[in-house]
Amino acid sequence: MLKVSNKEVRVRFAPSPTGELHVGNIRTALFDWAYARHTGGKFVFRIEDTDTERVTDEYIQAALGTLRWLGLDWDEGPEVGGPYGPYLQSQRLDIYAKYAKQFLDEGFAYHCYCSAEELEAVREAQRAANVAPGYNGHCRNLTSEQIAAYVAEGRKPVVRMLMPEGSTTFTDLIRGEVSFDHNFVPDFVLVRADGSPLYTLAVAVDDVLMKITHVLRGEDLLSSTPRQIRVYQAMGVAPEDYPLFAHLPFVMGQDNAKLSKRNGEVSIAWYRDAGYLPEAICNYLALLGWSPGEDREDVTMKELTELFTVERVHSSPARFDIKKLEAINGDKIRALTPNSFFDWAMPFLTRANVVTGTASEIELVKKALPIIQERIATLSEIPPMLKFLFTQDFAVESDSASKISDEQSKKVLQASLDRLAGLTEWNHAAIESVLRAALIEELGLKPRIAFGAVRIAVTGSHISPPLFESMELLGAAKSLERIKAALLI
RNA sequence: GGCCCCGUCGUCUAGUGGCCUAGGACUCUGGCUUCUCAAGUCAGCUACGAGGGUUCGAAUCCCUUCGGGGCUACCA
After folding, report:
1. Residues 339-398 of A with CB under 7 A from strand B
2. By the 8 A CB rule, do A319 and A253 touch?
3. Strand B bases within 7 angstroms of protein beta carbons
4. Distance in angstroms, CA of A383 to C1' of B6?
5. Residue A320 CA to B7 C1' — how many Å?
6. Fewer CB within 10 Å of terminal CB in chain A, N or C?
7. Strand B contact with A270 (CB < 7 A)
């Protein structure tokens, strides 16, 4: 039975930045963060960079930037420090070395001189014999003569943990009791031949030293848990002080399985550049493997911290569906205040070279944003939608041009031009009223036909923000000029 | 192959023995609204993987089976 503890909750997110963080990583980070905030505990951010071959400083920086952008603030970790630092494993090598030596001295681990080739041969044989694969314990009880011989050969040993007979059983907060027979948990390597530590050592040592109380991580680490627990035992940690484990279900790609570049495994930076809001990404990701219940789906970051519990995380994997993310993003955009929508929009407009940022442009942007706020799902749709208001070299889109080259369109445009030219007050209500009179009543046309032609002439496309508002914002001079020009198409 | 995890509409999920002729959301289809596109709104399609039990009663408990996934590294 789980013991109720009144210790302060300490949760860690400990990625190994061998690439940019993707939605799966972030979902884990989000749950870690939400759980820490929900319980009033600490959110610890640790970098697992023991794999020096694959982890790069660039990826580490990107990881920090991603969490910050998403609003997942950490209480301890890189840049902010904390009482149990350093929080980069590459800076804790002496600590791991100390424990490795201690395990060796106390008989929990031993030197293994087997070469990669020998190990591979053993695995081959095991596969062929159809028995459980894993280290065969060859170096467990080497005599001093054997050791001397290996050393003489120039072999450098790894440090290998000795898994005793028996089994390891623990209670996963999401999956219940899980048990592994040690026959299927072979002796594992703690320290490489070059003296550098492996994840298996570092993760367990750090979780203990950093006083981590809850380990919420991906399901792929479920089967490494017995190894981690063995390290706790070697460290002399009492069972009641082991962290509690909760293995989160996978986030999988659109179609079948595994996240890939094609479906979801793209960096969060990609989503940022594509115009997704942090709140939307977090809200959507929160729904992958968790739900607030009561037919609710829309949650703010604050609500997430209030509602999130591991009890409501379920055990089956979830498919990443960008369509739903998009829908949620649209909802979040619509919920933005005018000021904050403006703040989000400007970088997209400048990056797309639609505006440069002059005072007059900003004024126009502020007037234009309200008419498009409810018609977009991502911020990247803003530039193409507002381009017609700012462009210096206006031209009707080629596929729309053909729709206004017929006789009827010419009549519509000419009539519009005549009436609009006489307009003394240039505002959307006035524009609408004269155009309705001229096109709908006098020419007897259907609104969609009549206004469609004007829309193409003025905005350059058959899809645009509301026509009359668009014309008001464009101004009389440009609007008339464009209609005139369209007459010549 | 072995070990471990998982299995409700196409997708995310609600559901912890009777409230379930299974609810919500996204997608899709159709309608309304309508100056286009959206938004809004109404309706529709579609699910408890299968087979056995237990029980008055099962999506919910048990067993088997099938299917999916993970691990099986001097990666994490």
Report:
1. 374-376
2. yes
3. 1-8, 10-16, 23-27, 34-40, 68-76
4. 44
5. 17
6. N
7. no
- CA torsion sign, A321 to A322 to A327 to A331? positive
Q: How far is the CA of A252 from the C1' of B6 (A)?
A: 13
Same domain, A73 and A220: yes
Number of domains in chain A: 4
Q: Which of A371, A390, A409 is the last residue of a domain?
A: A390
CATH of the domain at A431: 1.10.10.350
Catalytic residue (choose from A98, A261, A367, A446)? A261
Residue A156's contacts (CB-CB under 8 Å, 6 or more residues apart) are A193, A194
A431 and A476 in a single domain? The answer is: yes
Q: Work out if A86's Cβ lies within 7 angstroms of strand B.
A: no
Which CATH number goes with the domain that contains A378?
1.10.8
Residue A5, pLDDT above cutoff 60: no
First to last CA, chain A: 80
pLDDT in tens, A50-101: 998 899 999 999 999 999 999 999 999 999 999 998 999 999 999 999 999 9
The reply to whether A261 belongs to the active site is: yes
What number is the ipTM of this complex? 0.94
Kindly report the CATH number assigned to the domain that includes residue A127: 3.90.800.10
Tell me, what amino acid is at A259?
L
Q: Residue A411 pLDDT more than 80? A: yes
Range of the domain at A437: 398-487
Whole-angstrom Cα Rg for chain A: 32
Does residue A318 surpass a pLDDT of 80? yes
A226 touches strand B (CB under 7 A): no
What is the domain-level CATH number for residue A215? Answer: 3.40.50.620
Edge-to-edge strands of the sheet including A42-45? A42-45, A10-13, A214-218, A244-248, A167-172, A176-181
Question: Do A208 and A181 fall within a single domain?
Answer: no
